[in-house]
Amino acid sequence: MTPPRTHWTSGAVSRRLPTLVAVAVASTVVSAEVASSKSIRADELGRKSSDPPAHSAKIVHLGPTPAGVIEQCRRVQAEAHFRMLCPLVLPRAVIGWPGQPPPPLRAGLIRSNPRRPPDGVDIGYGAPWEFYSGQPAALVRPHLWRNRPCCFLHFVVQRGAPASGARPAILGGRRGRLLPANSSGSGAYFGNHVRFFFREHGVSYVVTLHAFGNQETIALLGRLIAELRPIAALRASPPPKHGTTVRIGSAGPRAIAAAPGVLWVLTREQPINPAAPWTGTRATLLRLEAATGAVKTRIPIRGEVRGLAASKGAVWVADASGARQEGIVLRIDPKTKRMVARVRTGTWPAAIAADARGVWVVNTAPFFKRGALVRISAATNRAEGRPVPLGPAPSGVAVGAGAVWVADAIEGTVRRIDVARHRTIATVRVGRQPYAVAFAAGSVWVTNSDDGTVARIDPSTNKVVARIRVARNPYGIAARSRSLWFASLGAGTISSLEASSGRVVKTIRVGGDPVGVALTSGGIWFSQNSEGAVTRLSNQNGHASKAS
Question: What is the DSSP letter of 545?
Answer without folding.
Answer: B
